[in-house]
Design a protein that fits this description.
The structure is a homodimer. Chain A contains eight helices and 13 strands. With about 250 residues, the first copy, chain A, is of the alpha+beta class. The first copy, chain A, has two domains: about 150 residues, Jelly Rolls, CATH 2.60.120; about 80 residues, Winged helix-like DNA-binding domain superfamily/Winged helix DNA-binding domain (Arc Repressor Mutant, subunit A), CATH 1.10.10. Chains A and B meet through strand 6, helix 2 and helix 4 of A and strand 6, helix 2 and helix 4 of B. Chain A binds a DNA duplex (30 and 30 nucleotides) through helix 7.
Chain lengths: ~250, ~250
DNA sequence: CGGGGGTTTGAGTCCGTTCAAAATACGTGG
DNA sequence: CCACGTATTTTGAACGGACTCAAACCCCCG
């Protein structure tokens, strides 16, 4: 068991994981590999554990392969020359990370920042290329995944252009519902935010001050209560109304 | 020669075109087909001519195949339940149209409106499927194309979130430069807009009134002169400054 | 000449920003 | 475990860019 020095990279710990037993695989791009392909994947991949705040890859860096998030949450942050930034996507457990740059053939157009403690595998680009060539279904799965990401990005554009901050925040809560929420004893929706207030602002294309004020507004109208990163939504329909009934 | 009735569809005229001699093919997804594949493509495709204002497909309609724009310009407009809309992309001659919905496997998430008079071919989804299976390079080309579209969409999000309208309009002129501009005798950049003022507003996520005022501002600062759809840019660097030096 | 859509101009309003300060949460070392 | 310093979040007040509503203007066509 050799332990890689943490000084070499922002990675704190090394960890092993078998693709065969990885539960995520049933749903993602690597879902129907042959045993031989699965073995190849297992051999070439390297697994690491990242702590919140660590960066998996930086905007502008060349893409050397693709990542597979086993658990945790990663935010893709795009920054301009002036230092303004937006979070364009969240990538969660089971999803592939950094594949856009791989297929575009250039550098990363955004940085990948770890939100929750995450375990992430890296697959070298040559291996990805081999797998793509040997199994055309992988390519088809990527086409589908990217088509969904593109649609989500276009939708975000529409929201940014037409909704006010309050409706955008409500919409964000609804999108976070799938992955980060549960229902409590009294039937309330409890959303556990994977984001700081600053990051929420970056997702909504606004400022932290405005996020604070907007949260206050939702609370005083009894749509939801925010306590730290825990949000309690009393009535889901109210949230939907917030998005649709933009005055 | 049978002529299809124009009452059946928004298509005015029918037209034939050979994929073999189509100059665009050297650059797009269909660039390296075998002679057999090329023949298949030629047999199944149908070609039509669309006039400005006609709609190639509507948001919400099921995707029955993909389109290939031989000439002209098509705008992809995404509309929400309240009737607000943004133009998320322009698709020009040589480009494939409507492929996102094809790969996502659902309905169109935007409408395709013809701006300039356009000649567009349609390829049935079964034929596209056959070609994808027979020639893996096609899938790889689509992956690359979609990766570029995704990056453009993410960039648009960043622009919308961080730039003011004036900078966004300047940025739009710069992006239209590739396809819609030339240089006159005196070294000025002449951009021929494929868009009305209303459509410019939809691309910038703002209102026509604001577009008019912003144009006036650029003119009074002698960055560019707008005359109908013809824009004269005196100094390209001034335009770049407008985007980068957002006060 | 008289519609009719698109564009421009004007005036007032509002949402979100900015800058600044206070309050709270966080992390680290004593 | 508490005290302290720092970063984040919240609150406040003033400003401003873009929106709204409305009217005038323009241009294309019949």
């Amino acid at each position: 068991m050799n332990k890689r020095s943490s000084a070499l990279s922002p990675v704190t710990r090394n960890s092993t994981l078998s693709c065969e037993t990885c539960g995520n695989r049933s749903e993602n791009e690597w879902c129907n590999l042959t045993p031989v392909e699965l073995q190849l994947l297992d051999q070439v991949k390297t697994t690491n554990i990242y702590e919140p705040g660590q960066v998996v890859f930086y905007q502008g860096n060349p893409c050397l392969g693709i990542f597979c998030v086993e658990s945790g949450t990663v935010a893709l942050r795009k920054t301009d020359a002036q230092g303004n930034s937006v979070i364009v996507r969240l990538v969660g457990g089971g999803e592939t990370l950094g594949y856009r740059a791989f297929f575009a053939g250039g550098s990363y157009a955004s940085s990948a920042e770890v939100m929750d403690s995450a375990r992430i595998c890296f697959i070298d680009r040559d291996a990805v290329g081999d797998l793509l060539n040997s199994n055309p279904v992988i390519g088809h799965r990527f086409l589908r995944h990217m088509a969904q990401d593109l649609e989500a990005s276009d939708q975000a554009q529409l929201n940014l252009a037409t909704l006010n901050v309050r409706a955008r925040l409500s919409h964000l809560l609804l999108t976070l519902r799938d992955r980060f929420s549960e229902v409590d004893d009294e039937g309330n929706l409890i959303v556990e935010l994977p984001l700081s207030r600053q990051d929420i602002a970056c997702m909504l294309g606004t400022r932290p001050e405005t996020v604070a004020r907007t949260i206050k507004g939702l609370e005083s109208d009894e749509v939801a209560v925010f306590s730290g990163r825990t949000v309690t939504v009393f009535d889901l329909d109210r949230l939907f109304d917030e998005v649709e009934l933009v005055s």
